[in-house]
Design brief:
The complex is a heterodimer of chains A (383) and B (101). By secondary structure, chain A is an alpha/beta fold. Chain A has helices at residues 7-12, 14-17, 23-31, 44-54, 87-98, 116-120, 133-146, 173-176, 189-192, 198-215, 261-265, 285-294, 321-324, 345-356, 368-375, and strands at 34-38, 58-62, 103-107, 125-128, 150-156, 159-165, 224-229, 234-239, 282-283, 298-301, 317-318, 337-340, 362-365. Chain A folds into 2 domains: 33-265, Rossmann fold (3-Layer(aba) Sandwich); 282-375, 3-Layer(aba) Sandwich (Oxidized Rhodanese, domain 1). Chain A is built from 15 helices and 13 strands. In chain A, the strands form 2 sheets. In chain A, strands 3-2-1-4-5-6-7-8 form an 8-stranded mixed sheet, with helices on both faces. In chain A, strands 9-13-12-10-11 form a 5-stranded parallel sheet. In chain A, α4 runs parallel beside α5 (87-98) and α4 packs parallel to α10. Chain B has helices spanning 27-37, 42-45, 94-100; strands at 2-5, 19-22, 57-60, 63-64, 80-84. Chain B has a 5-stranded mixed sheet, covered by helices on one side. Chain B starts with a strand and ends with a helix. Chain B has a single domain (2-100), classed as Beta-grasp domain (Ubiquitin-like (UB roll)). In chain B, β3 and β4 (63-64) form a beta hairpin. Classes of the chains: A alpha/beta (383), B alpha+beta (101). Chains A and B meet through β5, α9, β8 and α15 of A and β4 and α3 of B.
Chain lengths: 383, 101
């Protein structure tokens, strides 16, 4: 039995009720349906807002992060007065302001192999708005195990992808990407940057697809991958097919319950110390400051040249990470060297590259130039 | 010649080029030609055993080469091959690292 609509709800949703494909019955379907939004960041912001506005009766939010001012360039569900508060609480407040007739359930915890099946079981559809490979594979696998559609979206700089992975009717994420790329190949948005409006475009497409699936109308992106580029304003599609050897949705699937995704992806998914290369290789900003007063140290900045306009350390040599392998001959392995980047991720990769090339007297500035700006030289901005 | 579309994350290794013209009568030789032009790409596309990595998806037009003849898929003059990467972004982890440091 579909729930009825109140007089107030009929007025609120009148623009939906006028569309024959939605109508009164469709709106009642939405009211009786539920969606789990995994991540309340760039993608989760438009997804959660539009699903709330559309009247999806029960919306779950999973995130354990707090709002930071660097989020607000794109995470429009939050606001400046919410900085420092829990993202799920900030999002819930905004959604209920937009539509007090819906229920918003919040999970202020990481989405993990231990809790994912339990949390997702209660929802009709999963929406993947995560920012890392371990959680993406977990979301996919859980959607396959529970037989629920997974509305996928992903972004990088000016590029976006979207699809509906629904193993009952088509391929899953693993059919396309059986394995994640090795750590370091694909930078995160924190490292690589993202145009603020891009998650708005892709997240809105995800919300559209979720509503179509819940309403049972139109042709969802099942079996298709949308490739969007904001610079070219191009929308391309490629066909996706079920992979008969898929380890989660194929006929001989050998993965039948959530696995250890951090191990599978070779990267931590949650609360990892991203800017650290490990105790043996790290030097903290105050330690570096102290050593620089007594010793000559070569400073190697592996950021992109345009980042030097934001903040820089005097005397540092700039060799972007992407060109480091080809430019090793410019460096002297006998020299004491400290490698740094924005927050320590790229410099950790650079350190691995240098060590494998025989450099021994090399350290990683833990937390990057941002840690330096926070702990040593407050005149530098943090970005 | 075949046009090979390079995704943003891999443009790091192609001097920023979004499209590269490659020679070859099938996908395998076209990819080898790409790697000859941009040697630092090799480790990202091939395993140490010389096999194409599992996360590398190549599409000829709208079709995955895995659904055609794989690396032996023939190429015709003017074809467009597209490399499709896994990208993970969607949110932001800066605030977490910022909070820790």
């Amino acid at each position: 039995m579909l729930p009825g609509l109140t007089r107030e709800e009929i007025l609120r949703y009148s623009r939906h009720l006028l569309i024959p494909e939605v109508g009164l019955e469709g709106q009642r379907k939405l009211k009786g349906s539920s969606a789990l939004v995994i991540g309340t960041g760039g993608l989760g912001s438009p997804v959660a807002l539009y699903l709330a506005a559309a009247g999806v009766g029960r919306i779950g939010l999973v995130d354990y992060d707090v709002v930071d001012s660097s989020n607000l360039q794109r995470q429009i569900i939050h606001g400046t007065d919410r900085v420092g508060t829990l993202k799920v609480e900030s999002a819930r407040e905004r959604m209920l302001d937009l539509n007090p007739d819906i229920e918003v359930e919040v999970y202020n915890e990481p989405f993990t192999s231990e809790n994912a099946m339990r949390i997702a079981a209660d929802y009709d559809i999963l929406i993947d708005g995560t920012d890392n490979f371990p959680t993406r594979y977990l979301t996919n696998d859980v959607s396959v195990f529970l037989g629920k559609p997974n509305v996928y979206g992903s972004i990088f700089r000016f590029d976006g992808q979207a699809s509906v992975f629904y193993a009952k009717e088509g391929p899953c994420y693993r059919c396309l990407f059986p394995e994640p790329p090795p750590p370091g190949l694909v930078p995160s948005c924190a490292e690589g940057g993202v145009l603020g409006v891009l998650p708005g475009t892709i997240g809105t497409i995800q919300a559209t697809e979720a509503l179509k699936v819940l309403l049972g109308i139109g042709s969802p992106l099942t079996g298709k991958l949308l490739l969007y580029n904001a610079l070219d304003m191009s929308f391309d599609f490629v066909k996706l097919k079920k992979n008969p050897n898929c380890r989660v949705c194929g006929p001989n699937a050998d993965i039948t319950e959530p696995i250890d995704y951090e191990q599978f992806c070779g990267v931590p998914g949650h609360d990892h110390d991203e800017g650290s290369a490990g105790e043996k290789w790290d030097i903290t900003a105050p330690q570096l400051s102290e050593r620089m007063q007594h010793n000559h140290l070569k400073l190697l900045d592996v950021r992109e040249p345009h980042e030097l306009q934001i903040s820089a350390l005097p005397g540092a040599t700039n060799i972007p990470l992407g060109t480091l392998a080809a430019r090793l001959s410019e460096l002297d392995s006998a020299e004491d060297m400290v490698v740094f980047c924005k927050a320590g991720t790229r410099s950790t990769r650079a350190l691995e590259l240098l060590v494998s090339a025989g450099f021994k007297k090399v350290k990683n500035l833990k937390g990057g130039i941002n840690a330096w700006a926070q702990e040593v030289d407050q005149s530098l901005p943090i970005y | 010649m075949t046009t090979l579309k390079i995704p943003t994350p891999l443009r790091y290794y192609t001097d920023g080029q979004a499209e590269v013209s490659v020679a070859g009568s099938d996908v395998s030789t076209a990819l080898r030609n790409l790697v000859e032009q941009y040697p630092t790409l090799e480790q990202h596309l091939y395993s140490s055993q010389g096999e194409l990595r599992a996360f590398v998806n190549l599409f000829l037009g709208q079709d995955n080469i895995k659904d055609l003849q794989g690396l032996e898929t023939p190429l015709n003059e003017g074809d467009t091959l597209r490399l499709i990467p896994s990208i993970a972004g969607g949110s932001n982890d800066f605030s977490r690292s910022n909070r820790r440091n």
